[in-house]
């Protein structure tokens, strides 16, 4: 399964069964799956069904959906008369005449909301099918864009993993020379101080110093994390959280190596490794 970016855009317009439905979807980074649907009030009952469709396509990220539903057929009109109000108005008119008031003829049906004409609301069940179909089409377009962006992210991360493996190799080689460098520095220091130390004592001190700065275990674990990152990329989305965790573990191991480093070559390689891992962390934040 391919890697998907959390950033994407999908659109669809579908005209069917007397309705024209326009759907626009935008997704950005988010820790979880979150949906914000903007839909006309009279179709709010479709919100849950729309979210259910979206959840099958978007496993992680914030998704903003803009859905417009228009009827393309002539709507029937519904006429409503407020009979109670009309009766009261007529009664008042008659009473005014009885009291001697001369009033101009009034058509009460056109006054004070006595009569209202409204378009008959669409049957929600009729529009449900075409709406959900349009949402699916927009989701497919969204997933296509997220997958295409995910390919670029995966290619970039693969290259960064190659760079990190090269740095690990440099660290391994430098670590293997640590004992020799410790011995050379110790002998030089002893020569400066004009000290004469027995060979067995010298070997003991070299071994102790080399053990304190040994990073073999950290390098093994770091290499293991690199392999796990490769496997996760191959598994495909949704894998963003797992990759984020693996990157954190990489950073932890490199920090441990940095705290033990007493060699310039190792310190330099640690800086290179931290730079690559930080770049990976930024990219992982956008993976579903």
Textual characterization of the structure:
59% of the residues lie in helices and 16% in strands. It is built from eight helices and six strands; from the N terminus they run E-E-E-H-E-E-H-E-H-H-H-H-H-H. The strands form two sheets. The protein has a four-stranded mixed sheet with strand order 1-2-4-3. Strands 5-6 form a two-stranded antiparallel ribbon. The protein has helices at residues 47-55, 83-98, 124-176, 178-193, 199-212, 216-235, 240-260, 264-284, and strands at residues 8-16, 19-28, 33-38, 61-71, 77-81, 115-119. With 288 residues, it is α+β, with helices and mostly antiparallel strands.
Give me the CATH architecture of the largest domain, please: Up-down Bundle
Low-confidence stretches: none
How far do the termini sit from each other? Answer: 12 Å
Strand coverage percent: 15-25%
Protein structure class: alpha+beta
Looking at CATH, which topology of the largest domain would you report? Butyryl-CoA Dehydrogenase, subunit A, domain 3
Summarize the biggest pleated sheet: 4 strands, mixed
Topology pattern, helix = H, strand = E: EEEHEEHEHHHHHH
Class of the largest domain, according to the CATH hierarchy? Mainly Alpha
Large-scale geometry = rod-shaped
Helix content: 55-70%
Overall mean pLDDT: 83
- Helix count equals 8
Order of strands across the main sheet: 1-2-4-3
Family: Belongs to the YicC/YloC family.
Protein name: Stress-induced protein
Keywords: Coiled coil, Endonuclease, Hydrolase, Nuclease
Coiled coil: 147-174
């Amino acid at each position: 399964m391919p890697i998907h970016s959390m950033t994407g855009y999908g659109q669809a317009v579908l005209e069917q069964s007397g309705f024209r439905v326009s759907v626009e979807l935008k997704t950005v980074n988010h820790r979880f799956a979150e949906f914000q649907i903007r839909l006309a009030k009279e179709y709010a009952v479709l919100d849950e069904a729309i979210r259910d469709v979206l959840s099958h396509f978007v496993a992680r990220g914030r998704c903003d959906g803009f859905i417009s539903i228009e009827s393309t057929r002539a709507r029937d009109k519904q006429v409503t008369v407020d009979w109670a109000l009309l009766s009261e108005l007529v009664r008042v008119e008659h009473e005014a005449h009885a009291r001697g008031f001369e009033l101009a003829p009034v058509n009460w049906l056109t006054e004070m909301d006595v009569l209202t004409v409204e378009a008959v609301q669409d049957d929600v069940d009729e529009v449900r099918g075409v709406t959900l179909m349009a949402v699916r089409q927009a989701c497919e377009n969204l997933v296509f864009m997220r997958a295409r962006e995910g390919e670029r992210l995966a290619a970039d991360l693969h290259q960064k993993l190659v760079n990190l493996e090269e740095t690990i190799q440099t660290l391994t080689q430098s670590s293997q020379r640590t004992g020799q460098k410790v011995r050379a520095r110790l002998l030089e220091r002893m020569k400066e101080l004009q000290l004469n130390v027995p060979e067995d004592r010298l070997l003991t001190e070299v071994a102790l110093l080399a053990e304190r700065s040994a990073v073999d275990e950290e390098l093994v674990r770091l290499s293991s994390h690199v392999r796990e990152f490769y496997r996760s990329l191959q598994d495909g989305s949704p894998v963003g959280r797992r990759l984020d965790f693996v990157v954190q573990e990489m950073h932890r191991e490199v920090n441990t190596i940095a705290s033990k480093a007493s060699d310039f070559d190792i310190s330099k390689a640690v800086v290179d490794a931290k730079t690559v891992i930080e770049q990976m962390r930024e990219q992982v934040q956008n993976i579903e």
